[in-house]
Amino acid sequence: MEFRNIITFLKVAELKNFSKAAEKLGYSQSAVTVQIKQLEKELGTRLFERVGKGAVLTESGQDFVFHANEILNTAKQAVDAVRGSEKKQSEREITGVLRVGSVESVSTALLPEILMEFHRICPQVEIVVHTSKRDVLIEEIRGNSLDLFLTLEKKADYPGLVRKILHREEIIFIRPGKPLPGMEKYVSEEEGLLSLEDLVRLPFVLTERGESYRYELERILAERDLRVEAQLEIGNTETIVHMVEAGFGASFLPFFSARHAIEKGTVRQVKTELLPLSMWIQMYYHKNKWITPQMEAFLAVAEKYFQQNVCE
């Protein structure tokens, strides 16, 4: 099985088109066709369905995507190991690439500190971070274009993935440090717990629809025939905190996203009659994945970080 055929297969799978893959790789379309046919003959199965001008992965092709990426990654690890073999064992450092996927809230508030500590320990490792929606990142783990996936949601098992639970995090309501105009009575300390009816009257800046904790909030409110209206929707939680600090409105975020602003007094936590809502910070990787030294090191750094920075 030739590496060039595997590389060509992955490019066709990515672009879903033989001619576009040929253009990207600098081959003729006929050369790409020959390479894919050679690979299909070796594997004894069809990898693509040719539909019009497009190319759609068959079920076997979808299964092979993961293994194709793993073959190339293992080959790279072998090259890196051989190139570093002249070093003494005691002086050898972890090298290679670590590809981490993360949802926005975790990527903005937590990942930088974890990455800095990991870089301190493994300075020779190239780190690639991809921030996206959960479903996109899960598919990238399954396709082996990511090594690790860090998320915040309810406990969830996904077929084919291994889960590491790192930390439980409370999701809280926040408001500006100074009461919102016209809403003073709803946020005064003397009022105690804020009723849901008063809560939904506040102007809100929220994460985009579909975010795990926003979805859970909307579900809980819907059970009581209530809904919260977002005056502004934006994916970046750091921007949301800044908007709340500036007096735009209230929000509903993980505690870690608002912790520093709460400590500074620029935002305040709003207590409501809702029971505390928690989500879990979880790490996933493919069950068939070879745990590289850099993956093992990153997992250890993340676990230690949450042990030392519990903010419940």
Task: Please tag this protein with its features.
alpha/beta, 312 residues, two-stranded antiparallel ribbon, single chain, 13 helices, seven-stranded mixed sheet
Describe this structure in words.
With 312 residues, this protein is an alpha/beta fold. Helix content is 45%, strand content 22%. It has helices spanning 3-15, 18-25, 29-43, 59-83, 104-109, 111-121, 134-142, 184-187, 196-199, 212-222, 237-245, 255-264, 293-308; strands at residues 48-51, 54-57, 96-102, 125-131, 148-153, 161-176, 204-206, 230-233, 251-254, 267-270, 277-286. The strands form three sheets. Strands 3, 4, 5, 6, 9, 10 and 11 form a seven-stranded mixed sheet that branches. It has a two-stranded antiparallel ribbon with strand order 1-2. Helix 1 packs across helix 3 (29-43), helix 1 (3-15) crosses helix 4 (59-83) and helix 2 (18-25) crosses helix 3. The chain is elongated. Mean pLDDT is 84; it is low at 85-92.
